[in-house]
């Protein structure tokens, strides 16, 4: 199985008055992890996706478990794998850790949509094949 | 059952290049719904909670389903009810709709923590009683 | 002179680990003040402006002075007036106060742009007349 | 003169419905440039500054000129130099460019404050010396 990894330092802008990451900022980080995954692993930049192709990959559902708080100065290591791939959707699993300590686990469902019609559409074949390299069923 | 309601206009700052609400901004709105609920329904402002009392109510888990996209100019109507109340936690259910159309449904678990020890602590009795007025089991 | 006023409570999401408003969040508030001014004072919603009309009003310049920190629970009262109005631009002056205490003063230049060409364009005559009601030279 | 440089990719989360960077997000980027400068150039992390030392460096004033719009997928190159250094303040000049095209120029005044008293305090001598290496008067 191929796992996509990414690293985010916890910056001042992510933290709340309690000095810990404010959870909506985690979702900004997660969006950036997905965006970077699309760019580097699928060679499908959001500039291309949203620009010339007029498509998007909004979340249909997202479920997050927060295991421990993250603080200013922590470095978060993200791991992303793909679960079941549907006709025009994909389950995505993302974990964030600081060193050996798990901080959050997220499961979401990405849906490929046509931005002009705001309707779901099937994955282009080559993109689907690229996604499959990151499914748990595969061994890289 | 008492239901707490709140209204949020979808502003420019919430929207992404696709012209729809960027989902991390929904979580900012949801945090504001919870913060306003604490202030108005529980008479427990976050300024008091985080300030003199040195407590916080981070989410331990949050699960969101996005039913339809929201656009600039939409007005979102939020409904909040409380589910099971634990010793120092509470399940919270929030729905957001625009007119008759459901936009998102969120279930989360708030955890009351002592900010200095970053450990869970029990609800003060009066606060727990106030929370109970918003549980589904109750009829207001 | 007509002055447009608006009120923003300082919420948890605006505050940094020092417990005060993080200054980029002030600019989100200021954008919301301008957006609300366009909607209510000029009857020109950003949904219409950005949607069917394909125009925008980005800032060409913004200069902010921060006089005193704002804290969670403060309520900010904003005052907006218009300065010199150019062919397709307008100077805007915004102050934010909490009670009698000035918190920040902002001067900016809005530029009306055609979003498809990303070029400046002149104010529609009726919009310009509406803007003029908020200039300092006028007495309402 | 030593110049501190930093690079930020324009991500989805920075962009507005017009598909360009929403200007409050530029201020988040600028805060991150300053935070990274403190960490790498001054060896003074915000975690140390805000944590054990209980100090902060809020902006007393900030003046930004936006020369051209930035879009999703652009890469912004930041340059930071220090202007006049006061007893407990420092002028900071930051420019952001994409390739050869200037996008924005920012001048601000950082103020070193004691977070508990919320009062200005003088730069520690070693920190001031480190700052001076980035002033325009110096040649590195």
Automatic annotation (TrEMBL), chains A, B, C, D:
Lineage, top ranks = Bacteria, Pseudomonadati, Pseudomonadota, Alphaproteobacteria, Rhodobacterales
Q: What is this protein called?
A: 4-hydroxybenzoyl-CoA thioesterase
Superkingdom of source: Bacteria
């Amino acid at each position: 199985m191929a796992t996509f990894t990414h690293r985010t330092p916890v910056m001042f802008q992510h933290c709340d008055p309690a000095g810990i990451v404010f959870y909506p900022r985690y979702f900004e980080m997660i969006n950036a992890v997905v965006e970077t995954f699309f760019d580097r692993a699928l060679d499908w930049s959001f500039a291309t996706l949203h620009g010339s192709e007029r498509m998007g990959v909004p979340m249909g559902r997202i479920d997050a478990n927060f295991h421990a708080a993250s603080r200013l100065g922590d470095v978060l290591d993200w791991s992303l794998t793909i679960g079941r791939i549907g006709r025009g959707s994909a389950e995505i699993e993302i974990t964030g850790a600081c060193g050996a300590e798990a901080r959050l686990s997220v499961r979401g469902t990405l849906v490929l949509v046509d931005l002009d019609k705001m309707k779901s559409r099937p994955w282009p074949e080559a993109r689907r094949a690229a996604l499959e390299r990151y499914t748990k069923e595969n061994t890289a």
